[in-house]
Amino acid sequence: MKSITKAGLAAGTALLLAACSGGGATTTADQQPTGAVTATSSPSPTPTPTPTPTRPPYGPVLARYVDPVNAALAKLTSATTTDAISTVLQEVAGAATTAGSGLGYADEPASVTTVQRQLVTALTQLATDLTKVRTDIKKKTLCAVPSALARIGESEGLKAVPAALAQMTAAGYPTTFAPPQFPQLQTRSLDNGAMVREGRLRGSGVFKVDNGGSADAVVSLAQKGKSIHSVYVGKGKKASIEGIEDGTYEIYFSGGVDWDSNLKAFTQNCDFSKFDDTLEFETGRTYTSWSITLQPTVGGNAKTSDVDENTFPTP
């Protein structure tokens, strides 16, 4: 019974509180406003949904990596020296490496997953190929602009990149990639004994060359660093110049593969040398005849030195 009385008081208190409009009355220990609030149920708050991240469009991602490679390759058209080509190739190789690495981590659509892997492989190969060309330029394996450009055109990576991008275009992701046209690698030569440069031949001197080396050569008789007579001598062959006028001559010779008559130089596997001693031609009761051999010879008495191509006289 006692408990019912307390419940009645509580209920009455609740009604009394509900009837009060001020809400500022003093409450006693038995009158706890919070008792009524506790008894009232309130709805649970609705959680704010976490937004789903939007994947960036793939087209701009692809272009961001491919465009620098294309732009760097275009600079090859204005390169007029092998050093300039080497500088551009370093830029292209760097751009290709960055593109391959970046696309390797790109979030691509499922429809181009396979072709993206192919593109990454092609870009990596392109960087490797162009680094090799730079090495060949430094070693004089490629020693002229035409041969350097031709070797770039032979790059397997350069062929594979457009093939992969064509598949990207078919899948709806076109890009601009238009490398320059590259020449074909050649192996041109002149007839043995052909005169590359022929000065006045009104003397009596004779100059004979035996090319026992492994490459064709052009041998020049020069004075004061300027070529006077130059003759083409095929590998394993002999040639001569007759009618050389009296005087003292320096002997320069260059060897290599693919003689470019416009450049008057070999474009591949080049070397540039000169004999340390000069040759003197004199005409009197007799005339002078000199013979040289372009290969190491047991008992040979002529020393040679390498010459920087920039100071080598044009044949």
Q: What is the total number of structural domains? A: 2
Per DSSP, the total helix count is 7
* Helical residue percent band: 25-40%
Helix/strand structural class: alpha+beta
Distance between the termini: 131 Å
Q: What does this 3D model show about the protein?
A:
With 315 residues, this protein is of the alpha+beta class. It folds into two domains: 58-170; 195-306, Sandwich (Immunoglobulin-like). It contains seven helices and ten strands. It has helices at residues 2-19, 33-39, 58-74, 82-104, 113-138, 145-153, 156-170, and strands at residues 195-197, 205-210, 216-223, 226-233, 238-244, 247-260, 265-275, 279-281, 289-293, 304-306. The strands form two sheets. Strands 1, 3, 4, 6, 7, 8 and 10 form a seven-stranded antiparallel beta sheet that branches. It has a three-stranded mixed beta sheet with strand order 5-2-9, with no helix packed on it. Mean pLDDT is 86; it is low at 1-37.
What's the helix and strand layout?
Blueprint: H1 2-19, H2 33-39, H3 58-74, H4 82-104, H5 113-138, H6 145-153, H7 156-170, E1 195-197, E2 205-210, E3 216-223, E4 226-233, E5 238-244, E6 247-260, E7 265-275, E8 279-281, E9 289-293, E10 304-306
Parallel strand pairs: 2-9
Antiparallel strand pairs: 1-4, 2-5, 3-4, 3-6, 6-7, 6-8, 7-10
Defining traits:
single chain, 315 residues, alpha+beta, Immunoglobulin-like, 2 domains, seven-stranded antiparallel beta sheet, three-stranded mixed beta sheet, rod-shaped, disordered N terminus
